[in-house]
Design a protein that fits this description.
Helix content: under 10%
Structural class: mainly beta
Number of domains: 2
Radius of gyration: 26 Å
Strand content: 35-45%
Bound molecules: 2-acetamido-2-deoxy-beta-D-glucopyranose
């Protein structure tokens, strides 16, 4: 018997703006410089720089170009690590993604002190940073991904982007450039791990714990980096990365007041890019809403494929019966087609592991989020896109124990998995290890009590066998509210009655 416990629940849910781009956005890259081999997962050898690059206060005299959309210092990184930023090494990532140029595309690079290019880069720096007047670039390092395919051997969608490091040997700036129609794919087909590829990520990772990601990095919105900007040119992003104080981070331009266009557009013409890639934009009188396309479901900001299994990744914190819960992992696997969700939490402290069975309603929220929609009814994901704040109070009638649950849905992460933060506080009845819990089928009825507010109150019970073999019934009440953002321009959708039936007793197992 180990010193931790995994807990498993099993449920069956019954019902449940594009401006034109200057053609010369990119610095020269054709017929110039060195090329990476046409293969999957390749890196350059160490490239000695004539003028060093300063990055997060560190001075680097060499650099590596890696096929998966990043420049690295210290070491080459040919492998696509399917993880969310940060990585373990200092990198500059114009678009970290599972690039594969076995079939098509080129990746090239050069260092230059060409006077015209230097002048252009210095101008861009002066325009963006009011305090950079004294900066005169002496060298540029330019790397270009031109019409590159995706892992594996993907050639139907191609990406083009460029990174330019602008240095004077003492300070450095970086331009990320994404030409119009340059970002056609944001995710490879997945490695052999069974996990989908992380969505494309863009940003900077220092040699210490500091890192910085672009707006939309790792989300479906990353496709918009070619339309968005932190300058006045769509697709152009510029940052100061060099002499950064040890307590500071990468610097954005201070001269443009449209740093990332986050003014709220009023129509699809300007706003369609805010919809998910698998959503369409619908104009209403006062504004627009996003709506997932056929074969997908969600709230239009987040859409997932119908009938595809969903993974949920959560962290559980708090304190139950005086036992601290710190960063316990919650994993859930939801098979919507047959209305099942498997939820496991590890590692629950041993003293409360068995008693934890009385908290099975924690997993019930996921039952609502991914309930199988019937007729015109909608489930929690269609309403919220997985972004919500739930607060629930459970009161155990016989014993007066009380628990509050806070669950924060953070939407889909870089792998399309729903992120959940859960906090549990309070006391629950002590159940003996021998206790075999049986719970009744139950039904949850949510009522829309205000804009973006759902509430439900219910009384439930479960039974267990005590040491003497007698069946004991524990009654409890569950009051909960869910707050979510919604598109206020369209009619409020009809709400489903959703019943969640537990088909199997939760079991606690030690391993
Ligand atoms: C990808 O293309 C390369 C080069 O043509 C080939 O050797 C390899 O077998 C292909 N891989 C797959 C999975 O199709
Ligand atoms: C949830 O709560 C957080 C604060 O903890 C808040 O920033 C966020 O806007 C809330 N989300 C919704 C959808 O209301």
């Amino acid at each position: 018997m180990g010193n931790f416990t995994t807990f498993l629940w099993l449920f069956l849910n019954l019902l449940l703006v594009t401006r034109g781009f200057p053609a010369d956005l990119l610095y020269d890259y054709e017929n110039i410089g060195s090329f990476l081999n046409s293969a999957d997962e390749v890196s350059s050898s160490e490239i000695k720089l004539k003028v060093p690059i300063v990055f997060y206060g560190q001075v680097y005299s060499s650099i590596f170009v890696n096929s998966n959309g990043l420049l690295s210092f210290q070491t080459d990184i040919p492998t696509f690590f399917n993880i969310e930023f940060p990585l373990d090494y200092p990198v500059i990532a114009p678009l970290y993604s599972n690039v594969d140029i076995s079939k098509t595309g080129t990746i090239s690079y050069y260092e230059t002190s060409n006077a015209d290019l230097i002048a252009r880069a210095s101008r861009n720096v002066h325009k963006a940073f009011s305090y950079s007047g004294d900066f005169l670039a002496t060298s540029l390092f330019v790397a270009t991904w031109s019409r590159v395919g995706y892992h594996r051997n993907g050639t139907d969608k191609l990406n083009t982007f460029q990174v330019v490091i602008i240095s004077d040997g003492d300070d450095s700036f970086v331009e990320f450039l994404y030409p119009e129609n340059g970002i056609q794919w944001i995710q490879g087909t997945g490695a052999d791990s069974g996990l989908p590829d992380a969505r494309a990520q863009a940003g900077f990772i220092g040699a210490d714990d500091r890192f910085y990601v672009l707006h939309g990095s790792g989300t479906d919105q990353i496709k918009n980096i070619e339309r968005w900007s932190n300058t006045d040119v769509p697709g152009q992003w510029i940052y100061r990365v060099g002499r950064i104080d040890s307590d500071a981070n990468i610097e954005e331009p201070d001269t443009y007041n449209n740093v990332v266009d986050n003014t709220v557009p009023k129509s699809c013409e300007k706003g369609a890019s805010q919809c998910h890639g698998f959503a369409k934009c619908i104009d209403h009188a006062e504004g627009f809403c996003c709506s997932c396309r056929e074969l997908y479901y969600g709230n239009g900001k987040f859409c997932v494929k119908k009938d595809a299994p969903i993974r949920v990744n959560g962290k559980v914190n708090g304190e139950i019966n005086g036992e601290k819960l710190s960063n316990l992992d919650l994993q859930s696997y939801i098979v919507m087609v047959d209305g099942r969700a498997y939820t496991a939490i590890s590692k629950i402290p041993e003293p409360i592991a068995h008693s934890f069975q009385s908290l099975y309603t924690v997993g019930g929220l996921l039952g609502w989020v991914f309930a199988k929609p019937v007729a015109d009814s909608v489930n929690g994901f269609q309403l919220t896109g997985g972004v919500f704040n739930q607060t629930a109070t459970i009161i155990f009638k016989n014993t007066n124990h009380k628990v509050t649950i806070k669950q924060k849905g953070l939407g889909l992460d870089v792998y399309d998995q729903l992120r959940l933060d859960i906090e549990l506080q309070g006391d629950i009845p002590q159940l003996l290890p021998e206790a075999k819990v049986n719970m009744d089928d139950y039904e949850e009825q949510f009522t829309l009590t205000g804009p973006g507010i759902l509430q439900s109150s219910s009384a439930k019970s479960f039974t267990y066998n005590n040491l003497e073999g007698n069946s004991v019934t524990i009654e409890f009440s569950l009051d909960q509210s869910v707050i979510f953002d919604y598109c206020k321009y369209s009619a409020v959708p009809f709400l489903a009655t959703c019943s969640t039936i537990a088909t199997e007793t939760p079991s606690a197992s030690s391993n």
